[in-house]
């Protein structure tokens, strides 16, 4: 069982990542107003579509990120989990910033955040499998 103090860092990164997602969601509403794209319409202006894709891609990624962050933090290290989680948040900010400008500029941020997720996911798997291996062997 993790002590409360140990989970403060991944908890903070969880809140920061949710605030980041909230901001990109608000940006969709702002872009709807700016480009006069009323719900349920999802297309029509390339600048709006890029803002919408940032939000959609972020929700797709956060579904992988949050469980991976917590599993890594529980089975490996809350401090390292929070550090890698911070890299993910920075990657998502770079992704959004780049994509808002042009679709081609999203690659760096996507790569950074994807690498962070795969690190958390593989680390969590290793952290789970090692104790299981000791139990069965």
Features:
single chain; 137 residues; mainly alpha; Four Helix Bundle (Hemerythrin (Met), subunit A); 0% strand
The beta-strand count equals: 0
Q: Which radius of gyration do the C-alpha atoms yield? A: 18 Å
Strand % is under 5%
- Dominant shape: elongated
Strand pairing plus helix content: what structural class? Answer: mainly alpha
Report the mean per-residue pLDDT as an integer. Answer: 96
Main sheet properties: none
| Count of individual domains | 1
- CATH fold name, please? Four Helix Bundle (Hemerythrin (Met), subunit A)
Helical stretch count?
A: 4
In angstroms, what separates the terminal alpha carbons?
24 Å
CATH homologous superfamily label: Membrane associated eicosanoid/glutathione metabolism-like domain
User: Can you write the helix and strand succession as a string?
Assistant: HHHH
In the CATH scheme, the class would be: Mainly Alpha
CATH architecture: Up-down Bundle
* Sequence stretches where pLDDT stays below 50 over 5 or more residues: none
- Binned, the helix content reads over 70%
